[in-house]
Amino acid sequence: MSFSAPGSPPPPPPPLPAQPGPAPYQAPYPVPQQGHPYPGGPVHMAPPGPQSTLRSPKGLATALIWLLGAAAAVRLFSAGVGAYEQSWLQGFSSDTHFDDLELGLAPGLTVLAGLLQVLTVLPTVVVFIVWFHRVRSNGGIFRPDAFTLGRGWAIGAWFVPVANLFLPCRIALQTWRASTQRGPDGADRTASAALLTSWWVVWVLAATGDRVFSRIYMAAETVDELLVAGKLGIAADLVTTVAGVLALLFVRRLTAMQNTMATEGPYARV
What span, in angstroms and rounded, lies between the C-alpha atoms of 29 and 143? Predict the structure, then answer.
């Protein structure tokens, strides 16, 4: 304890400790108020709220890129197995019943390809949805005005029949826009979403092709019917492989855009 002479002013309070800097991947710039989406230059900003901390999608993106690459490779392998099965089926008469086919290498490879698809698709879907929700949440911090649906739809939209054919794409397009830097003068800039659109169109075609193939294959009873189903299966595998590659490129691009926004701010330097 320290003492001072009577009547002397009290000693100054001790200096406050320095406040720590922003947490990793936290926005280095203020978060705009609702209704003020960086309109052409500096604006009055609201102080960061409890949900205004960015979370880096880079770790999820890295895992997702590897999973998407593995899933695409498995689909390519499945297409090769389908081609081999086509040549194997040619050795039987067209009216041979499915139950009368002899066991051989082709059926075994088909089972292996199906098992590998299950092992790669399930974790890929889980990680993709988690990543998708992460980038949507970050986009809501970058530009809250860019979205017409809450961030919970980044998960729920995938599980709504029929709506899952267009709602996730809508959310992705809005996230893409929210993750695009404005010009140095604050002017709005549009980043081409051709990659995103291409991925979505090919993915819908692949998903539709898979469903058609599954129904025809399960109903096939003769060699002729199996040959028809097999051709559809090969086409579906190849289209799904392309969709996987496009998804990989989309994940890389959007993650890079968000990293730039988080490190440089909402305005491009040049």
Answer: 12
pLDDT value of position 11: 54
Termini Cα distance of the chain: 58
10-residue stretch averages of pLDDT, the chain, 270 residues long:
44 50 47 41 39 84 96 95 86 63 72 92 96 95 90 94 93 94 79 92 94 87 84 94 96 95 82
**Alpha-carbon gap, residue 270 to 266, rounded angstroms:** 12
73 CB neighbour count, 10 Å cutoff: 14
Distances (CA, A) of 4 to 9, 10, 12: 8, 8, 12
Provide φ and ψ at 222, rounded to 5°: -120, 170
pTM for the whole structure: 0.77
At residue 102, the pLDDT reads 64
> What's the 3-state SS for the chain?
CCCCCCCCCCCCCCCCCCCCCCCCCCCCCCEECCCCCCCCCCCCEECCCCCCCCCCCHHHHHHHHHHHHHHHHHHHHHHHHHHHHHHHHCCCCCCCEHHHCCCCHHHHHHHHHHHHHHHHHHHHHHHHHHHHHHHHHHHHHHCHHHCCCCCCHHHHHHHCCCHHHCHHHHHHHHHHHHCCCECCCCCCCCCCCHHHHHHHHHHHHHHHHHHHHHHHHHHCCEHHHHHHHHHHHHHHHHHHHHHHHHHHHHHHHHHHHHHHHHHHCCECCC
Dist. CA 140–CA 150, nearest whole Å: 9
